[in-house]
């Protein structure tokens, strides 16, 4: 079963409400979808999100990378040589991690289909069900409180609160949400690099002293400021999660060695796909560092691949795969089921999509 050709298209999905972080505001998802065909007529599917403020990639750059660089590097290779395929993708161009992820996801889909098994089982098969949080965008305090109450009413028990746009308001917004949702909802806080190290310590200590009971604080400082991240981790009691600071296994080793963070957020769009995500997960596990699986603004196509990865691995203990929950409707049938906060794996082979139905649309 050899790789015959690779096709690139667009997948669009309007969001229920605008997605706002310290870095950007987005109203609708518009991503690249990659379909990989084998010489025996099998099809694998993957997706890339053009998150230019984080990975530096655009729709145009992803299309070019996949069509002109990655596809020629993998055509003619047998799907059984999955490690060789992943190595070719890794080596054929620098960075462009989302473009690489889209192709890798499609290849893993094909590989698992060849063995007629669900992907999560071939990757480790640790659990069948995972529980995701949902993002509360950064807005004025009342809007954030209203959105949090609405999310809890939809059945979500874990909220990821976006902050970092105006440090002076962040403590009050989080405290207001805690008061509104009560003590039993888990609150995660994501500053998306929006604070300085000193601001972060001041804000987190205030949240600790006022009893906000925050599970973790994600990426408080600029991605390149590892010394700042280390300062925040060393001067607060709350667990600190590295997101934008960790793309590669090597960066994970550096963060772990420096004790710059307590936890690592793995996203397929940062790692370049499943193979490097597995490496980071295992490095972290051997170091006693638990991982979150996260996503960019992605539809069910690539988020489902992330769900398979998360279900497979014991060390993925936190799940932030709310992309499909933020969309008005799913672009594709099949795959893991997303029901509120519950993501349930199925026994369908590969990632589990009805790709033929998608392509017929
Ligand atoms: Mg984040």
- Largest sheet, if any? 8 strands, parallel
Class by helix and strand content? Answer: alpha/beta
CATH topology of the largest domain: TIM Barrel
The geometry reads as globular
Under the CATH scheme, which architecture of the largest domain would be assigned? Alpha-Beta Barrel
SSE string: EEEHHHHEEHEHEHEHEHEHHEHEHEEH
What number of structural domains do the residues give? 2
Strand content: 15-25%
The portion of residues assigned to helices is 40-55%
Number of strands: 14
CATH homologous superfamily descriptor of the largest domain: Enolase-like C-terminal domain
* CATH class bucket of the largest domain: Alpha Beta
Walk across the major sheet and give the strand order.
5-6-7-8-9-10-11-12
Please report the distance between the alpha carbons of the first and last residues: 26 Å
Mean pLDDT: 96
Low-confidence stretches: none
Q: Compounds present? A: magnesium ion
**Alpha carbon gyration radius:** 20 Å
